[in-house]
Amino acid sequence: MTIEFSAPTVLRGHNRDPLAVDLLADVVDLVLDDLRARLPDVPQRDQLDLQRLDLTRDFHRVPSPTAVLAALSHRVTAYAQDQANYLRPDGGMQTIVRGTKRNYLVRGYDKEYELARLARRTRNPAHRGFLEAWVEVSKGQLRFEAQLRRSELKKRGLLTMTDCVADRLEEVAEVYFERVGWSNPYGGVRVAEQLVALAKELRPAEYRNLLTYLHAQELGVPSGLNRNVESAARATVRKYHLMDRDDGGELRRLDFKDGR
Fold this sequence. Notes:
Helix 4 (about 110-120) packs antiparallel against helix 5 (about 125-135) and helix 9 (about 205-220) crosses helix 10 (about 225-240). Helix content is about 45%, strand content about 15%. The mean pLDDT is about 90. It has 2 domains: about 50-185; about 190-245, no CATH class. The strands form 2 sheets. A 5-stranded antiparallel beta sheet has the order 1-5-4-3-2. A two-stranded antiparallel ribbon has the order 6-7. It is an alpha+beta fold and about 260 residues long. The chain has helices spanning about 5-10, 25-35, 65-70, 110-120, 125-135, 150-155, 165-180, 190-200, 205-220, 225-240, and strands at about 50-60, 80-85, 95-100, 105-110, 140-150, 185, 250. The protein is built from 10 helices and 7 strands.
């Protein structure tokens, strides 16, 4: 028998917030009790062999999650076969993925944007309203998610639910946080500095079009550029992550334990 479920969804009906690791055993017991009411010979919690475990940490009050993701997206994880960055339509960084999927995958993404995207796609008005309410309170929420498969769980000594002690799970999550470079400082480059450099590289007309596009995006209005010119400006924005930067300029660091 194989059982796969989202622990936060079982407990709360959604996964907007990660589950506190000390509640994991209780949620597993709830699932097993429900199965026992439907099926014979359901094992006890301590008899389960772990095949996959997702460990999550949310960072709150991040001034610009997409800027942090853009900075982290330049880092390469050693020996990771799957390394991908996913952009939004406006060129902002939304999701970064690192790892080797048969062993582990680490994802980072802007939770507010993800909820807003889901709200736009749903056809159920009640569900849409629920998601939109979460969007309002999720601004600045950056999610780190480590998905560990059986081979990786063995390396970490997480074979059964008995091994899933809260402190140990926190330690393991932090191992992957450091492994993919999230614990290192980021930032230190201002948008203005990048634009000054681009002024020397681009032709005058291209540079003017780029500034026009950026200003229109900032104001949320049409740029007035024709399709080909706007497409070229957008490509430059994406290449240099000009809409991902938090223009503070100073080096910063995500604190795993504080979630900030």
